[in-house]
Specification:
Helices cover about 70% and strands about 0% of the residues. By secondary structure, the protein is mainly α. The longest helix has 28 residues. Bound molecules: fe (ii) ion. Fe (ii) ion binds next to loops.
């Protein structure tokens, strides 16, 4: 479900924002924060569009976990390059 993917990507983007490292920390940290804000800003519109179209929407974090198609990354250390390339792929999949 689209909204589950948006929330999953929001948390994943915050995860990488919080755990960014390396010489480009500041730029990448801010970049990911901007992207997370854009994702969060989408959520209400997507949920209300689903309701307007006669459907239901998300009720819990557990439901997000069951419905998301994007894959979480709970690995303890991810290199900055790997974070950015994973973000690129996930955002392309979301689109
Ligand atoms: Fe922050």
């Amino acid at each position: 479900m689209l909204l589950a993917d948006v929330f999953a990507l929001y948390i994943k983007t915050k995860n990488f924002h919080w755990h960014m490292s390396g010489p480009h920390f500041r730029n990448y940290h801010h970049l990911l924060d901007e992207q997370s804000e854009e994702l969060f800003a989408m959520t209400d519109a997507v949920a209300e569009r689903a309701r307007k179209a006669g459907g239901t929407t998300l009720r819990s974090v557990g439901q997000i976990a069951r419905l998301q198609r994007l894959v979480d990354n709970d690995v303890e250390y991810v290199t900055p390059d790997d974070m950015l390339s994973e973000m690129r792929e996930d955002n392309a999949q979301l689109v």
